[in-house]
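Whether sequence alone determines local backbone shape is best considered at the level of individual chains. The sequence in question and its structure tokens are set out directly beneath this paragraph.

***
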Amino acid sequence: MQKLQLYIEGQRIDLFKDETVSITQTIQNVKDIDKVFTSFTKTFSVPASKVNNILFKHFYNYDIVNGFDARLKKPAQIELNSLPYKTGRIKLEGVDLKNNLPYLYRITFFGNTVELPDVLGDDKLGALAFAGSDYDLTYSPAQIENYLENDLTATNPNIIAPLITHTQRLFYDSVSHVNGTGNLYAHGGGGGSNFHGVKWNELKYAVRLYAIIEEIETRYSAANGYEFPIVFSRDFFNENNPEFNNLYMWLHRKSGSVEPASQVTSYITPIGPYVLSSGAIAAQVSGLGFFINSFYTTYPNSVGNWEVDFQTLNTTDPYRFIISLNGTTIYTSPFEVTGSFTFNQNPSLTGGNYLISIQHTEPIVFSSVTISIDGIRYRGPNGTISYTDVLTATNVSAQKVFTFLVPEQIPDVTIMSFLTGLFKTFNLVAYVNDVNTIVVRPLEAKAGTANYSYYTSADIDGNDAPVNYDISSYIDVTKSQVNSALPYREIKYQYAGLGTYLAKQHEQLSGTGWGSLNYIGGTSSGGQGGINYNAVSRVYNVAVPFEHFKYERLLNAANSNTTTIQWGYSVNENQQPYIGQPLIFYGVHQTGGSTTPIRFLEDASNFSDIDSYWIPSNSLYLDPAVGTENINFGLELNEYTGASGFDETLFNNYHSEYIIDIFNESRRITKVSAFLPLRILYNFKLNDTFTINSRNYIINSITTNLQTGKSDMELLNKV
């Protein structure tokens, strides 16, 4: 018998002498292959002794004030033979009474990894702050164009505006140029025919997944009062891992247009910049406003009447007039006006910086805004002179510009769902190391690389490399089992969101979901043979909670030539705006766009031609010679190249080795018992291998009786 000791918050508690205390550990059970954040749990009983009653503050007594809070898990530690064995958390489940007296307490011991769902709870991605300059965004034509066009990875790697439209159908036609269409061709010349292309407000921002991981760590940090802060290792969540670092999530909270925060009912747009078209005495251009030197407003000099003349372009939408001095509003017109209007009932001008703005609810375009300032300047013996300073701003566009708050625009899903989705997608495992870091690693190695995989390599810090233990001499040979390892006939990998127009079209034509994979075992090495195995279950479904778009590379409708443009269309089968699941994709910055520029519509009368732009992709690279990694589970024709050689799918890179082994006809589950020595009990990890009579096994699960030292194991033979 081994000496077992249990401590709660550093206090040793009493145990029943005959209570069996065992711990089950599993990292990846073949019967539940998409289970993540696994560790160990155990519920057992401890006596209602004097020591334990004090520790649990007589929980059975309702009248005790400030008693034991059973809603919280308490730090705990298990020792074997006075040496630390496992750390975790204890939760008090309840008390059993006999003859109205406490008899025992029921408690559960949790391993550290399962703390993650408890910390996160039902918190959603919108609970993350996304504060700082990287997320200082407005929703405006200028900002959207900037994040669509420019490669901002050197200064702001976390936000892009990819070419994904929520309503507008895009195409490319070097001949046709009809106003108001989604034709991206940048036609030369002038005239109204130029005003076509992608509308700026058809686009939305996207945030890098790595930034979301960082925001989770910031939100649930020690600095924010969390006793057990969330810190992920950088094994897979690594800026140097392009397969993760180049992934983005589209900031698509609702179908169709972006909506501002609920408290925004109107928009305030500053007018400018101005040109001093005549005069240059009292007024000087200053940023978007103008500056008046106090010399010209002080006796004997003076500034008299001044007016602001607004000339609009075909609008009936109302607006108000606002004046601010040195950043403080000093006047707001008491009434709304529509169309062109001249304001001449303005407050007296004093020295300082002035800004003219309008308050509006709909976009308004002004052909010109003109400020005329009349003044008198004293010239001593020469008397006085009168002057008029005129400042003019032309082609002013007042759009629905509001602060784009990432937490209010990010998909409305829980953080736990997001993380679980990543774990399912890339077949990741998690465990807590000795410094309370959640180590996140792929279960298996990507072909040709170590990739810090759980079963084949050490972690990024050089720790936790797999070790082999020969346990042949410790096996209880009196009883064992060898069973089939096949729990099901077929495994279906797919994205939960396949509802967009092009994805639906693909499914209707091919009979399979876009990017999906139905794996059916059939040969000694796995394969797609379709043998009707007598498995316990026919189908096992692995559905990741993300949307999966089929993108379209545009051809020139005039001659069928390829372009450098690939885009996403967020509409359903009826080509109506579509919400779906959170969309993840690779962001690819097209820098060779000078051969295929696109037209970007700023408003009804202004446009820009953009030579570079961010496009969405399911493939990490567009050139197969560079790499063929992609986020399809099954092999698909590449949307950009049309090639079939992009074979580094999610299944091939992250799932195949483990799954093929399961379906191998030589694979067995061996159930044995062993009395492992303390040097193994203390040190073994779930990625270690055991050798029994010259045959190697990986650990599927292991349950250890901590008093007797007996371990009941499910082992998978290595084939």
Notes: The two ends are 36 Å apart (CA to CA).
